From TrEMBL:
It comes from the Eukaryota. The lineage of its organism: Eukaryota, Metazoa, Chordata, Craniata, Vertebrata. It comes from Neogobius melanostomus. Its EC number is 7.2.2.10. Residues 965-992 form a coiled coil. One of its GO terms (molecular function) is calmodulin binding. It catalyses: Ca(2+)(in) + ATP + H2O = Ca(2+)(out) + ADP + phosphate + H(+). The chain crosses the membrane at residues 97-118, 138-159, 264-297, 322-348, 834-852, 910-929. PROSITE patterns: ATPASE_E1_E2. Residues 1038-1051 have a biased composition (Polar residues). This is Calcium-transporting ATPase. Belongs to the cation transport ATPase (P-type) (TC 3.A.3) family. Type IIB subfamily. It is found in: Cell membrane; Membrane.
Length: 1074
């Protein structure tokens, strides 16, 4: 792999080899590489020393040393592609063609709205007697509102894209964190994230690994690498220390094991949417054409007007208005929310599936799993607990039903057994103390080997001293386990120079290679074919019928003279001496039988594909519920399966497969090739009406082809190899079959969520397009304005997709059969719902459109002039339309004809929040401008408060006290002159108080005067004078400044002394009241 670190001049200064030298070294292959290593470093050990590493102890693990290596040689990390910023996502959202058209039209409309034709006598259609001053001034609102709506749509779209990218990056990070590799540090074998590996690390490679770094092999056992990803060659390349030690990152370990010195790190729904879009485009074009023709014919033909140059901008405004209506129809018709709903539903489901132990690597697999009709599952670890325990054994001609006491076993047999298990197992397999006192011991590595190591411990023996005596580096030859051998063999060299071979594997296969067996005295006796048949019948089959996996352990001594040809495996692994046959129990997971019942009830057929004995497989299948007594099913071994599906020429025939797979439930002693053949045969079959959707589980390297061929491939997160994980679509982090059932639930939920939104979206689209089109053709205007449709588009696309795409799954999803891969996305029930709700909404909208003004006794909004402000009539239509969609959103939660649409609604807080929030926004948006202006007063108050008063010298203080010697009359006259309009407004309330008080005073004055004058005529004159004063006081509420004293300036009718008295009293009363 290429190094992603900065290549500094001092690279390698702290070590005996530079980064450039390592790069050059990794360019060599085969003998050239060996010669380069020998000439530059002496040997691999010399290269290790220069890198301050050890082939046996690895690195020290010191953090400072690790940091120095990362700085010198780089980190084993590929920097992710830089995430797009929010502004970049906003720019991408702005590239939408429909929005661009709408923006241009809105800008043109906004510009033309400020244009007024020259001359007041010019008659233009839409100008004369059609617009008052307020309507003309409101002409800019629609263009500005459209632009504002476009901004909202763009921001929401960009935010959704940003959230989606963030989720996907989180998923990718989770996948990368899951990948770990085994290295040796400070003599301890540990697993670390691949990103923490550094140059100089001693990595242990084994069957199934995906190599994360470049390296040089320092010790290998039968290692074969698949380099097809780099070279394109499908043949496996044999690697060895003395022939070709160069290992490259990105290649797969297909067989064997070994140790590698790390030398380089780093890295070097569409059809439905298209149909609706086309329909919307046609409808919008027809709408524009009809509106233009209607206007032209009505204006220039029927009314006989002529096209005046000064009226051209006005006519253009009409055409722009028609164009905006047409584009708006297109905006509403295009269900851009559908891809968003799919994305949100998948992203939401993937996030939730992680909690259900499903790590989704390919998003489409989530939805595909909802349509699965068949699951081909492994047995070990998936249906069973994958905690192996030896419960029975055949030792020294005795069948032990429990683990025997060590005293019951011959010492020589016991010693051979301990050595055979300890040496002929991967040294990474071991038993560790439990994490919790009193708990079960931890099994690390291959579970079958751990079961055998546990058997050694139960016999009160130890395997660790044997491994210390014979370390992995001293293993002379290793034939690693693979699906063809179904066995593993290891050769060691004894102290006398001879060789000993230990071998273990499937009992039926191993016993065929055995010519001897140890008796009760630990001596080898002949083991003839009839002895083998009797042992199979008396020991192996009874164990298998109890669901036990049977393993045979054997050995053979080989002479060093002449040394055997180790490449001739058939001559080496033969004439073995059987030590024991053990029965290993792997209990069925307690939750698996119920999970399989759910699958069967949901119309999914579960098949077991395993490498175990057919009797073991059949027993486990019965415990799991895959097969039931009395059912018509088939259980086959791999060889029988191949014999039945091939013709005389050995070619596979689909017709032969079609006769087998519908009834096949168990395929035992199968190879990965058999699994791939079965999966391909089921997928390609036309025996049934519906095409089968097949899910497959796999954990081994050779399971890759079957995992890739399947519609959905499940890899085991614990026991699975890196190759299997790379080939899979979903990783089961707990290796549990019940997690597959949860994946089915989530898959069906995704399918239903998309269908729910599609039903809701198409109802909105159909109604909105028909209303806009029909209304525009009949009334020459759309009842739903461009801004309103953009708001509808926002809440019904973005928010509704989020609400309906986040419904949690329920067990009810498993009560129906799969939809089928070829079924239409819009079912008959959905079509009924779309048409039914559409008809209801159209009836309501058209009723309000044509007779709504009579129903509510309001002015009609039809045939409104250009730039007229929104009418109460059309506002009612808009609110009614939005609220019908809002409640239909609740209906859309059920798409299978259920009556209770509120069932489980409170389990989805997102849905409830969006529905209530949309309802609240719909109310607020009607009062948005009022609210904006009102809140603006609060903000303006803060602005005023920030202005320093001393910075405003132009302001005058008011309300000073009276100066000594000033007369009341002069002060009143000055006050009256200073009263401005604002002060008069404040005095209107005070006048009411003055009137009441003045009336009482006047009445008292009249009575007093009447008594003094003694004549009725004088009283009448004085009463007339008072009424005149009251009239003059009322003039305070008018714009003119009037002095109270002028009301009685010429009192000709009253006596002088009385007139003066009244004037003085009125002046005093006015001053006091004010």
């Amino acid at each position: 792999m290429g190094d992603m670190a900065n290549n500094s001049v001092h690279a390698g200064a702290d070590f005996g080899v530079t980064l450039t030298e390592l790069r050059e070294l990794m360019e060599f292959r085969g003998n050239d590489a060996l010669q380069k290593i020998e000439s530059s470093y002496g040997n691999t050990e010399g290269l290790c020393q220069r890198l301050h590493s050890s082939t046996t102890e690895g690195l020290s693990g010191d953090p400072a040393d690790l940091d120095r290596r990362k700085q010198t040689y780089g980190q084993n990390f590929i920097p992710p592609k830089k995430a797009k910023t929010f502004l970049e996502l906003v720019w991408e959202a702005l590239q939408d063609v429909t929005l661009i058209i709408l923006e241009i039209a809105a800008i043109i409309s906004l510009g033309l709205s400020f244009y007024q034709p020259p001359g007041k006598d010019t008659e233009c259609e839409g100008q004369e007697n059609s617009e008052d001053e307020g309507e003309a001034e409101a002409g800019w609102i629609e263009g500005a509102a459209i632009l504002l709506s476009v901004v909202c749509v763009v921001l929401v779209t960009a935010f959704n894209d940003w959230s989606k990218e963030k989720q996907f990056r989180g998923l990718q990070s989770r996948i990368e964190q899951e990948q770990k590799f085994t290295v040796v540090r400070k003599s301890n074998v540990i697993q670390i994230p691949v990103a923490d590996m550094v140059v100089g690390d001693m990595a242990q490679v084994k069957y199934g690994d995906l190599l994360p770094t470049d390296g040089i092999l320092v010790q290998g056992n039968d290692l074969k690498i698949d380099e097809s990803s780099l070279t394109g060659e499908s043949d496996h390349v044999r690697k060895s220390v003395d022939k070709d030690p160069m290992l490259l990152s990105g290649t797969h370990v297909m067989e064997g094991s070994g140790r590698m010195l790390v030398t380089a790190v780093g890295f070097s729904l569409t059809v439905v949417t298209r149909c609706v879009c086309v329909s919307g485009l046609v409808m919008s074009a027809i709408t524009v054409i009809i509106l233009v023709l209607y206007f032209v014919i009505d204006t220039f033909v029927i009314e006989g007007r002529t096209w005046l140059a000064e009226c051209t901008p006005v006519y253009v405004q009409y055409f722009v208005k028609f164009f905006i209506i047409g584009v708006t129809v297109l905006v509403v018709a295009v269900p851009e929310g559908l891809p968003l709903a799919v994305t949100i539903s998948l992203a939401y489901s993937v996030k939730k599936m992680m909690k259900d132990n499903n790590l989704v690597r390919h998003l489409d697999a989530c939805e595909t799993m909802g349509n699965a009709t068949a699951i081909c599952s492994d047995k070990t670890g998936t249906l069973t607990t994958n905690r192996m325990t030896v419960v029975q054994s055949y030792l020294g001609d005795v069948h032990h039903r429990v683990v025997p006491d060590p005293g019951q076993v011959n010492p020589r047999t016991l010693d051979l057994l301990v050595h055979a298990i300890a040496i002929n197992s991967a040294y990474t397999s071991k038993i560790l103390p439990p994490d919790v006192e009193g708990g079960l011991a931890k099994q690390v590595g291959n579970k079958t080997e751990c079961g055998l190591l546990g058997f050694v411990l139960e016999l009160r023996q130890e395997y660790a001293p044997v491994r210390e005596q014979v370390p992995e580096a001293k293993l002379y030859k290793v034939y690693t386990f693979n699906s063809v051998r179904k066995s593993m063999s290891t050769v060691i060299k004894l102290s006398d120079g001879s060789f000993r071979l230990y071998s273990k594997g499937a009992s039926e296969i191993m016993l065929k290679k055995c010519s001897y067996i140890l008796d009760a005295n630990g001596e080898a006796r002949s083991f003839r074919p009839r002895d083998r048949d009797e042992m199979i019948k008396q020991v192996i089959e009874p164990m298998a019928c109890e669901g036990l996996r049977t393993i045979c352990i054997a050995y053979r001594d080989l002479s060093p003279n002449p040394e055997p040809d180790w490449d001739n495996e058939a001559d080496i692994v033969t004439e073995l001496t059987c030590i024991t046959v053990v029965g290993i129990e792997d209990p069925v997971r307690p939750e698996v039988p119920e999970a399989i019942r759910k699958c069967q009830r949901a119309g999914i057929t579960v098949r077991m594909v395993t490498g175990d004995n057919i009797n073991t497989a059949r027993a486990i299948a019965a415990k799991c519920g895959i097969i039931h007594p009395g059912d018509d099913f088939i259980c086959l071994e791999g060889k029988d399966f191949n014999r039945r599906i091939r013709n005389e020429k050995g070619e596979i025939e689909q017709e032969r497969i079609d006769k087998i797979w519908p009834k096949l439930r168990v395929l035992a002693r199968s190879s990965p090739t058999d699994k791939h053949t079965l999966v391909k045969g089921i997928i390609d079959s036309t025996a049934l009406e519906q095409r089968q959707v097949v899910a497959v589980t796999g954990d081994g390297t050779n399971d890759g082809p079957a995992l890739k061929k399947a519609d959905v491939g499940f890899a085991m997160g614990i026991a699975g190899t890196d190759v299997a994980k790379e080939a899979s679509d979903i990783i089961l982090t707990d290796d549990n079959f019940s997690s597959i059932v949860k994946a089915v639930m989530w898959g069906r939920n995704v399918y239903d969520s998309i269908s729910k939104f599609l039903q809701f979206q198409l109802t909105v689209n159909v109604v909105a397009v028909i209303v806009a089109f029909t209304g525009a053709c009949i009334t020459q205007d759309s009842p739903l304005k461009a801004v309103q449709m953009l708001w509808v588009n926002l809440i019904m696309d973005t928010f509704a997709s989020l609400a309906l795409a986040t419904e949690p799954p329920t067990e009810a999803l498993l009560l129906r059969k799969p939809y089928g891969r070829n079924n239409p996305l819009i079912s008959l029930t959905m079509m009924k719902n779309i048409l039914g709700h559409g008809v209801y909404q159209l009836i309501i909208i058209f009723t309000l459109l044509f007779i709504g003004e009579r129903i509510f006794n309001i002015d009609s909004g039809r045939n409104a002039p250009l730039h007229s402000p929104p009418s109460e009539h059309y506002t009612i239509i808009f609110n009614t339309f939005v609220l019908m969609q809002l409640f239909n959103e609740i209906n859309a939660r059920k798409i299978h004809g259920e009556r209770n649409v509120f069932d489980g609604i409170f389990r989805n807080p997102i849905f409830c929040s969006i529905v209530l929030g949309t309802f609240a926004m719909q109310i607020v948006i009607q009062w948005l401008w009022c609210l904006f202006v009102g809140v603006g007063e609060l903000l303006w108050g803060q602005v005023i408060a920030t202005v320093p008063t001393e910075r405003l010298p132009c302001l005058k203080e008011a309300g000073l006290g009276l100066e000594p010697g000033e007369e009341e009359g002069e002060e009143m006259a000055e006050d009256e002159e200073e009263i401005d309009c604002a002060e008069r407004e404040l005095r209107r309330g005070q006048i009411l108080w003055f009137r009441g008080l003045n009336r009482i005073q006047t009445q008292m004055e009249v009575v007093s005067t009447f008594k003094r004058s003694g004549s009725f005529q004088g009283a009448v004159r004085r009463r007339s004078s008072v009424l005149s004063q009251l009239h003059d006081v009322n003039t305070l509420s008018t714009p003119s400044h009037v002095s109270l004293s002028t009301a009685t300036a010429n009192p000709t009718h009253a006596p002088p002394h009385e007139n003066k008295h009244i004037q003085r009293h009125m002046r005093t009363s006015t001053y006091n009241t004010t």
